[in-house]
Amino acid sequence: IITGITAAGGITAALVEKQQTGKGRIVTTSLLRTAMFASGWTTTWLLAHGTDGTARGPRWGRRDRTGNPLINCYRSSDGKYFWILGYESARHWGPTAKALGLDPQAPDFATPSLRITNETKLVALMDAIFATRTLAEWGQAFEAAGVWWTPVQDAADVVKDPQVNAAGSFVTIPKGPADLAAQKQHDEIRTVATPVDFIGSPLA
Is 12 left (phi over 0), alpha (psi -120 to 50) or beta? Predict the structure, then answer.
C-alpha cells in the first residue's frame, strides 16, 4: 500500500512538472526503496553519527505463541537475529531438526499438532541451541540442511547491503550551512534517498 501511494505521489508530481515545462519524465519506485525510506530515521542517524541511536535489540513479543515454532525469530551466539521460514510445518520440520541436531521423530515434536501443543518447550529448546553458534555458522548449517531462513539486518548491515545500494537507496548531497557541528568536517552528507526517482533530475 505504501509503495502504491508513493508511486501515485511521484506520478502526480511528474504531471505537475509536465504542465509547467511541457516535458514528461520517467518515474520509478520499488518496495525496497519505500521500505528504506519508511525506516529512514534510524538509517539516517547512523549515517550521520555512526550509531543507530538505540541501545536495545528488536522486540518480538510472545514468540512462543505463534502457532508454528518454525516461523519465528531466533538469536545466534554473536547477538545476530534471524528468521526461520518453515511455513509448511510438516515439510520443513525435517530439515530444521537436522540443522539443530534434533530427532525429527522426538515424541513431543514429531507432528505439527504436537509442535503446537509443545510450542513453548520447543521454542525454548531452539533458543538454547541457536545460542551455541554464530550467525555465519548457522547459515552454513541451514544451507546444508535445506532450511528456509533469512537474517535480520540492523541499520549498520543495511547501509552495506549490495542490493540496497544497487537500488539507489542513498543519495549524497552537499553540506548546507545549517548542518550540525559534528558533521562540519564533511563536505558532503550521505542520507536515505526519497522512495521515488525522477529520472534526469539532478539528484536522481
Answer: alpha
Q: Please report the pLDDT score of residue 57 as a whole number.
A: 57
Spell out where the chain has E strands. Answer: 27-28, 71-75, 81-85, 149-151, 170-174, 188-192, 197-198
Inter-CA distances, 131 with 52, 73, 109, Å: 24, 12, 20
The alpha carbon dihedral of 49, 83, 56, 133 has a sign of negative
Q: What is the spatial distance between Cα 197 and Cα 7, in angstroms, rounded to a whole number?
A: 10
Torsion sign, CA atoms 179, 181, 187, 191 = negative
How many of the other CB atoms lie within 10 Å of CB of 53?
12
pTM of the prediction? 0.69
Q: Distance between CA atoms of 90 and 86, rounded to whole angstroms?
A: 9
* Residue 118 CB neighbours (<10 A): 17
Per-residue pLDDT tens digits for 14-26: 999 999 999 999 9
Q: How far apart are CA 9 and CA 14, in angstroms?
A: 9
Q: What share of the chain is helix, strand, coil (3-state, %, to 5)?
A: 45, 15, 40
